[in-house]
Write a structure and sequence with these properties.
It holds the Pfam family Carboxyl_trans. This protein is an alpha/beta fold and 563 residues long. The protein folds into three domains: 8-41 and 280-467 and 527-558, 2-enoyl-CoA Hydratase, Chain A, domain 1 (Alpha-Beta Complex), CATH 3.90.226.10; 45-273, Alpha-Beta Complex (2-enoyl-CoA Hydratase, Chain A, domain 1); 472-516, no CATH class. 38% of the residues lie in helices and 17% in strands. The chain contains 20 helices and 19 strands. The chain has helices spanning 19-43, 48-56, 62-69, 127-143, 173-183, 202-205, 224-231, 237-241, 243-249, 260-272, 297-300, 311-315, 377-393, 410-414, 417-430, 445-450, 474-491, 498-515, 518-523, 536-547, and strands at 77-78, 99-106, 109-116, 147-153, 188-196, 209-213, 255-257, 325-326, 335-342, 345-352, 357-359, 368-370, 374-375, 397-403, 405-406, 435-444, 460-463, 468-470, 529-530. Strands 8, 9, 10, 14, 16, 17, 18 and 19 form an eight-stranded mixed beta sheet that branches. Strands 1-2-3-4-5-6-7 form a seven-stranded mixed beta sheet, sandwiched between helices. It has a two-stranded antiparallel sheet with strand order 11-12. The longest helix is centred in the first third of the chain and has 25 residues, at 19-43.
């Protein structure tokens, strides 16, 4: 922690003795306790009984395999931990989408590790499993980070095959991506540590190098039962596609290993023989701790998404001390734009300002009051210019989202809010420098888009426990949906009492509120991970380090900019 008595160019000392700070701090710590409890449950995968069964078969679990593979098991940045959370309940659930993945160092090289969790439906692929694996390959493609597959899967979950198999972003895209990754020279290593069946057999074999564990690993296009049904041939799984078959007869696999441990050690050996690491060279200075303790964020962020706060105070607990240079500080003040360093990395920051501000319109007036968290025309104009500057300078962009949307109404429309909003979206969409997004609070409507939501290809996007993602705020949405339902009933000749209307509104609000939580978003991979605000610096630093592995940067061309 930095000396809080030292001068700072951003933020002010917090008052931990104030009642509001303590109330907010307690509320945030409750949210973090919930997060930790849910993380622990998800990390169990299919549960203790299935973990024990995995061990009895002489196999490590997905998380144990990753821990053994990494240089430092604690240095693992998980991605997609809450994929599938509270989805597929009728099917018994699919914790973490049946796959554990994340970033860590293997023999000194930052790598993306993807491990099937065989304790979850024998590692079968649900729709969210395919989406998560495609996300892993997208990360590898964008950032040129080596990808290691630890394969242990029964293949497509047949009851849901129509949602997994045939479409563009379904199972088959995995193998197309294997080929594209190979063509770009991005290393792929696969270890067959359990079942690997049917179309899934192509994933490890389309990798650069494939390992197989004797006795537990098997890979074939059709298993013994299907072979008998198709051609009447009877054959045991090991003879059909075991380690001896594929390393001594077919030549399909490259390395035969006697155990999970040997396979993981062999991967480490292979990684130690990689060629030179090519980087783009994004600017990084010596890291400096923030001017203030990051844990103070808990007491600064309100316990309600409607309350104002100063985003500068939050940024002061994330960016390196004395590194902030604000761009157009007095203009478009509902967005903060500025240059800073995060763990030494030089970045451009675009952040929603949640304080109510007064925007100067001429020299005589006191100015127009603008609501925090709303993007006004001047703020959008400023952000577009700043994003273009960051592309010109070739520095990564970081977006901090707490946005309720763009300003509406006659004055905003007459002032050209659509034009200025389009300018910002254009510049952000065509930006070629790496983009990263942190959803700290609200993420509503077009604000989600303009502030680099999932649809705009951030290299990584994370959410704090206070995040809420939806087309509009819960209260407004619930009232609109309630009015639609009431009018529908009125057309059918039905009238509701005030009590019935209140009950209906409460049900709608509860359902909508559930759909705006960060867990709902993370379950569907709208965000990559839910993180503790204290971990934001490390998360962003790792992301930029990963992005730096891609030595290529496309030319920035925003096309037609609305002026």
């Amino acid at each position: 922690m930095a000396d809080v008595s030292a001068p700072a160019d951003l933020g002010t000392p917090a008052n931990p003795d104030s009642s509001s700070f303590q109330r907010r701090d307690a509320h945030y710590r409750d949210l973090l306790d919930t997060l930790a409890t849910r993380q622990a449950k998800v990390a169990k995968g299919g549960g203790d009984r299935r973990i024990e069964r995995q061990h009895k078969r002489g196999k490590l679990t997905a998380r144990e395999r990753i821990a053994r593979l990494l240089d430092d098991p604690d240095d693992f940045t998980e991605v997609g931990q809450f994929a599938g959370y509270e989805m597929y309940e009728d099917e018994g659930g699919c914790p973490s989408g049946g796959t554990v993945m994340g970033l860590g160092h293997v023999s000194g090289r930052l790598s993306l590790v993807v491990a099937n969790d065989a304790t979850v439906k024998a590692g079968a692929w649900f729709p969210i499993t395919a989406k998560k694996n495609l996300r892993a390959q997208e990360i590898a493609l964008e950032n040129h980070v080596p990808i290691i597959y630890l394969v242990d899967s029964a293949g497509v979950y047949l009851p849901m095959q129509d949602e997994i198999f045939p479409d563009k972003e379904h199972f088959g895209r995995i193998f197309r991506n294997n080929a594209i990754l190979s063509s770009k020279g991005i290393p792929q290593i696969a270890a067959i540590m359990g079942s690997c069946v049917a179309g899934g057999a192509y994933l490890p074999i389309m990798s650069d190098e494939a390992l197989i564990v004797d006795g537990t690993g098997s890979v074939f296009l059709a298993g013994p039962f299907l072979v008998k049904a198709a051609i009447g041939e009877e054959v045991e799984a090991d003879e059909l596609g075991g380690a001896t078959t594929h390393t001594e007869i077919s030549g399909v696999a490259d390395y035969k290993c006697e155990s999970d441990e040997e396979a993981l050690d062999t991967i480490r050996d292979i990684m130690s023989h990689m060629g030179p690491e090519h980087r783009f060279g994004f600017t990084r200075d010596e890291p400096e701790a923030p001017a203030f303790d990051a844990e103070e964020i808990y007491g600064l962020v309100p316990d309600s998404g409607q309350q104002p706060y100063d985003m500068r105070e939050v940024l002061a607990r994330i960016v390196d001390a004395e590194s902030w240079t604000e761009y157009k500080k007095g203009y478009g003040r509902t967005l903060l734009t500025g240059y800073a360093r995060i763990d030494g990395w030089n970045v451009g920051i675009v952040a929603n300002q949640r304080s109510v501000v007064r925007n100067k319109t001429n020299h005589e007036s006191k100015g127009e009051i603008q609501v925090g968290g709303v993007i006004y025309a001047d703020a959008a104009d400023k952000a577009a210019r700043f994003i273009m500057n960051c592309n010109q300078k070739q520095i990564p962009l970081v977006f901090f989202q707490d946005v309720t949307g763009f300003m509406v109404g006659k004055r905003a429309e007459h002032g050209g809010i659509i034009k200025d909003g389009a300018k910002m979206v254009n510049a952000m969409s065509n930006s070629t420098v790496p983009k990263f997004t942190v959803v700290t609070g609200n993420s509503y409507g077009a604000g989600n888009y303009a502030m680099c939501g999932r649809a705009y290809d951030p290299r990584l996007i994370c959410a704090w426990p206070t995040a809420k993602i939806a087309v509009m705020g819960g209260t407004q949405a619930a009232k609109v949906l309630h009015q639609i339902q009431v009018r529908k009933l009125e057309k059918q000749g039905k009238e509701l009492s005030k009590e019935e209307e209140q009950e209906m509104l409460a049900r709608i609000e509860d359902r909508y509120e559930e759909q705006t939580t960060p867990y709902y978003a993370a379950a569907r991979l709208w965000v990559d991970e839910i993180i503790d605000p204290v971990d934001t610096r490390a998360w962003l630093s790792r992301g930029i380090n990963m992005a730096d592995l891609n030595p290529n940067l496309q030319t920035f061309n925003p096309g037609v900019i609305q002026t």
